[in-house]
Amino acid sequence: MNTYNLNFISNENLFNHVQETILKYRFKMDLKSFNQNLVDPIKLTFDHIIYQKNPQLLINDEIMRQIDKSNTNHIGYFHQNIFNYLGNGWYVPAKGFDIVNDELKIFVEMKNKHNTMNSSSSQKTYMRMQHAINQDPCAQCFLVEVIAKNSQNIPWIISLEGEQLSDERIRRVSIDHFYHIVTGEKEAFKQLCEILPVVIKDVVNSIKQEMMQNTVFQELALISPNILQSLYLFSFAEYEGFEHFRYTDDAL
């Protein structure tokens, strides 16, 4: 194991946390999993004909999109759960707020991007934070954004039923400022980002990494040699008349 030279987290804890994140990554896709989100063969038909793109490439793009969406959730795990290792009373509770420090009375909701929440979820989160500070006037609540528009630690201003609400104890904080609060080091987040590629490579070299297993195309071929026809037959198998469906693009 390399020495990572971060004052706020041990080499072992950083390595283990990165390893836990990588082991959550998705390496398998079969037809059933692929269609869990109800893939739309009609959209793929439009895309195929309009962009003159091979159906296999379109389906592969959709497979990678689904895998990427799953893996994005695991990056959320990385961002949140690293605070279990930073000490000074910070931890990730089993339920409730994402990150908590009971001694400092700080309660954190973490979002990966500044535009993740719509107005309804923003209002719900803000009211939850309002409840927390009403229960304890010494409490502070942070909306921490990993990908924020600006480096900031400012009151969170929200519009609720046409009225603008703000409270100094409910704050909108970019991840760099939050790392500064947690570790006492102004550039802690920058230091983590700089060493992260090294840690990821160390972990990948230390584990028996799975190869990507994708059986979607083999399973579609068992239904029909025409990929798009297979997808129609699979997606609409229970619909009236589709047992006799024929895809009519003669170019395929």
TrEMBL record:
Asked if the record carries the keyword Nuclease, the reply is yes
Q: What does the UniProt keyword field contain?
A: Endonuclease, Hydrolase, Nuclease
Q: Which GO terms describe its molecular function?
A: DNA binding; type II site-specific deoxyribonuclease activity
Q: Name one GO biological process term.
A: DNA restriction-modification system
What the entry lists under InterPro entries is as follows: Restrct_endonuc_II_Eco47II
Tell me where on the tree of life, at the top rank, the source sits. Answer: Bacteria
> Is the Hydrolase keyword given for this protein?
yes
Name of a matching Pfam family: RE_Eco47II
Which protein is depicted?
Answer: Eco47II restriction endonuclease
Query: What organism, scientifically named, is this protein from?
Result: Beggiatoa alba B18LD
Q: What is the lineage of its organism?
A: Bacteria, Pseudomonadati, Pseudomonadota, Gammaproteobacteria, Thiotrichales
